[in-house]
Amino acid sequence: MRVLIIEDEKRLAENIAAALRENGIATDISNDGETGKHLAGFGHYDLILLDLMLPGADGASVLKWLRGRRDHTPVLVVTAKDDSQSVIALLNLGADDYLSKPFDLGELLARVKALIRRGKGVATPTVTLRDLEVDTMTKSVSRNGTVLDVSPTEYRILEYLLHKSNAVVSKRELLEHLYDFNWERHSNVIEAHISNLRKKLEANTNTSYIQTYRGRGYRLFPEEIAMEP
Fold first, then answer.
1. Tens-of-pLDDT digits for all 229 residues of the chain?
2. CA 48, CA 77: separation in Å to the nearest integer?
3. Any idea what the Cα angle at residue 14 is, between residues 105 and 44, rounded to 5°?
4. What are the chain's domains?
5. If you write DSSP's letter for every residue of 143-191 in order, what string do you get?
6. Is 122 exposed, middle or buried (0-12, 13-18, 19+ CB in 10 A)?
7. Which residue of 21, 88, 109, 161 shows the fewest CB atoms closer than 10 Å?
8. What is d(CA 124, CA 216) in angstroms, rounded to the nearest whole number?
9. pTM (2 decimals)?
10. What is the phi-psi region of residue 22: left when phi exceeds 0, alpha when psi lies from -120 to 50, beta otherwise?
């Protein structure tokens, strides 16, 4: 997963980024609205965290620009304004949620994860694929009730493939969502992570979970996916 933070308070932006990265979420930062628009148009983000009071272009302008180009990336607005009229105006512009400053980082993380799940069409934290169960809250993977020992990177690969289960995901796309703009230096290890993950998922079974499409990428086998009520 990958998040863009558009926030002019540099220390706050770095603190939020550190918390997200500790939770396995790749994060990019912009400290002004115009650069934020450029990054949002260039990158593929699972969520945008947007401050309203920004130099260059304010948050409302950025939000209007995003929705005007039919970009449906979930947007969590952080604002010092929490009166009902301001909130209604934000929602009408296309914000998905808002959080008033000052806020608790734990609450922000919960909001971020919920919006990303909602944006991927996963309303509940537990997703089942055949005999696999992936809990996106505890970041655990089990098969037939037995917890599998997957590494943090392997989990993030599996979770992203799960969210994109009906599409072939290229190596480049995986890397962009696993890492920040320094992803190029990790490009030679993705095959090793996929290989290790496949071995763990498919141990002692004839079931194939991850399909490789030579020259195109990877896809989690899309049949029999069900989400818990």
1. 889 999 999 999 999 999 999 888 889 999 999 999 999 988 788 899 999 889 989 888 999 999 888 888 899 998 877 666 777 777 788 888 888 888 888 888 888 988 887 776 655 667 777 788 888 777 889 988 889 988 878 888 888 888 776 788 888 888 877 766 555 555 667 888 888 898 898 888 877 888 888 888 898 875 543 333 3
2. 8
3. 90
4. 2-119 (3.40.50.2300), 126-227 (1.10.10.10)
5. ETTEEP---HHHHHHHHHHHHTTTSPBPHHHHHHHHSSTTGGGGTTTHH
6. middle
7. 88
8. 30
9. 0.62
10. alpha
Assigned token pair, 199: 């071995």
Residue 58 burial class via C-beta count within 10 angstroms: exposed 0-12, middle 13-18, buried 19 and up: middle
The whole-angstrom separation of Cα 164 and Cα 221 is 10
